[in-house]
Amino acid sequence: MSDTAVRSRKPSVHKLPVTGVLRLNSPAEIWYKPALSVVVASAVPNLLLYSLGRLDLVMYTMAGSLCALYGHNLPYARRAHTVLRVILGMAAGLAAALVTASLTDSTAVLIAVGALLAAVQKTFCDATRIGPPGNVIFAFVTSAALFAPQELGQVPGHMALMLAAGAFSWLVTAGPALWRREGPERLATARALDAAAAYATAPDARSRHAAAAAVQGAWQSLLASGRPTPVRQELERLVVHAERALATPAADGHVPGTDPDELRRWAAKTRARGPVPSPPPAPGTLEQLFGIDAERAGQRMRRGRREARRRLLRALGPGSPVLPVAVRTLVGCALAGYVSSALGVGHPYWAIVTAASVYQPNLALSWSRGLQRTVGNLLGVLVFAAVIPLARTGPLALVLCVLFFSFAAEALITRNYWLGSVAVTPMALLILEFGGFQPAGRLITDRALDTLVGVAVGFLAAVAVTNRRASGRVERALAAAGDARDRAERAVADPAADPPALETARRRLTAALVELRDAGDVASGEWWQRALPEEELLAAEQAGHRTLAATAQRQGLITLPPANGAV
């Protein structure tokens, strides 16, 4: 078959979504954890500064307190390292901003440095897949610090405040491990069971991808969780049962050999605080699960860490799909800042932060985020106008208002980004009050103008700076999926293949199929690129899942019906 036969012809410019962009979703399962964490991490240093009469220093402690927003889906062993890296990254960006602010008061230079920092932060957050809230918090802190009055001799003291608050944030995020150390793994396993039940109930391409991603996430969580415990071993057994549903081919809209209600019951018990369910071993599994202990030990070895560094370098190297988005961020943030400054807005860094928040994996998602940001910020300034008289009744009232909006932002943002922005906007404006009262009308006008400028200029920069490497990521994902499928087929055909080899081949193929679908989804919303090989993508996914089923059958996890009615 020729290449032209398998490559669908799609226009290089796609329709941008309008309907549904502002629709509210169900709240995230653990929305309260980042919300409570940031409140606790902020309340202690803020109230301490209030007692000392130095609320003018809140901006520096907030830089460390906001680090408590990261890592809440990760196992505690991985979370401790991730939040530490977030704190160090925040410290590096803040130090660069403070030193720059102390050396120059040129608005043009400050905007250029702010755009450069935003691009670097976007690059590293995307390359490391750090997860929400991503680069926006970094950009918010460093951009605001650039335009704050600063003397070079003050920088060490302000950095010390940030690091102290960051250390407290680390304790807040890692502390729950003392009484529920397997909590994140239990949640990831429950999600895999629910996704598998959804696929078993209504099997289609979307539910199959969701189940594959959830199962892959559960395995990654268990592999990153540290040494095996009896609870984690039971969780591994539950994930194997979820994989059975994923690996079993659907027939006539039904997945045979699986009970969705039982999977959901296991998921509910896994989420609860009681004992983890103890299902019977999946057919053909060993008492010691296939190679997961050896794989976990390999991740702890030096070569595992070297491989992680190599992956990061590849993600940042030539040909990386991350780099065009970084260039978009640099160009868009710089232009937004300069346009805002030319319009006479007194806080051009808000335009920088707005543009930085717009950039998502593809142009369609960036458009949606721009609409959400615009609606949320404009409503947020109205909320600020309503609450500012209360906040100005005294310093304690101001501190409590900031804490309230910090909680509300994290509580609402998972419903839809625009709803969270309604709380983020007054919080950001109120933080300025710690440095001294400013005319409320001017603050509202500046924030509204910066929002419109940041969204408009940021999106135009995204249109102008193309990301044709999205197609290249699809091609690499197709090649990787084909290679993983070939290895799995060789393992299935090899009579001497042992259970660990089969399990490793199956898990690698699952990961490759998840990456393939993600790459296709990202590329499908990007402009100015080669037509996507949609038929080839579909064929690769179907072939990969057939091989998954064959691998699971060889392991004894499932029993496939005989072909062509043969007995």
TrEMBL record:
Tree of life domain: Bacteria
A Pfam family that the UniProt record links to this protein: FUSC_2
UniProt keyword annotations, A-Z: Cell membrane, Membrane, Transmembrane, Transmembrane helix
Localization, UniProt: Cell membrane
Record's bilayer topology term: Multi-pass membrane protein
Primary localization class, coarse: membrane
TM segment ranges: 86-118, 160-179, 379-405, 417-436, 448-466
Limits of the Integral membrane bound transporter domain: 335-460
Listed PANTHER family: MULTIDRUG RESISTANCE PROTEIN MDTO, P-HYDROXYBENZOIC ACID EFFLUX PUMP SUBUNIT-RELATED
Protein family according to the UniProt entry: Belongs to the YccS/YhfK family.
Designated name of the protein: FUSC family protein
